[in-house]
From TrEMBL:
Its EC number is 6.3.3.2. One of its GO terms (biological process) is folic acid-containing compound biosynthetic process. ATP binds at K11, A12, S13, L14, R15, R141, L142, G143, Y144, G145, A146, G147, F148, Y149. Coiled coil: none annotated. It is an enzyme of class 6 (ligase). GO terms for molecular function: 5-formyltetrahydrofolate cyclo-ligase activity; ATP binding; metal ion binding. InterPro entries: FTHF_cligase, FTHF_cligase-like_sf, NagB/RpiA_transferase-like. This is 5-formyltetrahydrofolate cyclo-ligase. It comes from the Bacteria.
């Protein structure tokens, strides 16, 4: 994967552009898009009965994930949520049982994100649903800059086969996202407009 010397600068600019588009969506448009994206994601994933699927708990202007969680549970999947241990380390995942109340957990940077309680068992996901700031048609993901998912995907993929599907609004698609050596590509991206399947290089 070629290294782009101006990748950090380019990514910051592209991230701002994609996040501005995302923030401009109305509440009604967000909910409608979330239902459509959930349907597309389930269609791409196929039979998930008995699989452990990690889904992020959306916050701020992120695409709502509750429609996806609802469909995954109805299809027989078990749900996990990511937990930040400390900066620079991979994420861990805790089982989220139906009806279990989430608690505040340290997220990236100064963020606080919902997560299962510490008493919930740690699990290894079969499918990772990944949040995106932006993405391109080649499956390159633009995250929030902390590298948690790149480190986590690299670790998980070194141990077993895992599906990684990005999850975002269609308005977050960019013409191209600079690729760096440490960036982990996605197997697909589910949006309200459909599935983006990475092009082979």
């Amino acid at each position: 994967m070629p290294h782009c010397p101006d990748a950090h600068l380019d990514k910051a600019s592209l991230r701002s552009e994609a996040l501005a588009r995302r923030a401009a969506l109305s509440p009604e448009a967000r909910e409608t898009a979330a239902e459509a994206a959930a349907a597309h994601a389930l269609e791409w994933l196929g039979d998930v009965k008995g699989e452990m699927v990690s889904v992020f708990a959306s916050f701020g202007h992120e695409i709502p994930t509750h429609p996806l969680v609802r469909r995954l549970r109805a299809a027989g999947a078990e749900i996990a949520l990511p937990v930040v241990l400390e900066p620079g380390k991979p994420l861990i995942f805790r089982l989220w049982e139906p009806g279990e109340e989430l608690v505040s957990s340290r997220g990236p940077g100064r963020f606080v994100i919902p997560a299962p309680p510490e008493t919930a068992p740690a699990v290894s996901p079969d499918v990772l649903v990944v949040p995106l700031a932006g993405f391109d048609a080649r499956g390159n993901r633009l995250g929030y800059g902390a590298g948690f998912y790149d480190r986590t995907l690299a670790l998980l993929r070194s141990a077993k086969r895992i599906e990684a599907i990005g999850y975002a609004f269609a308005v977050q698609e960019l013409p191209a996202v600079p690729a760096e050596a440490h960036d982990e590509r996605l197997d697909a991206i589910a949006t309200d407009a459909g599935i983006v399947r990475p092009a082979e290089e």
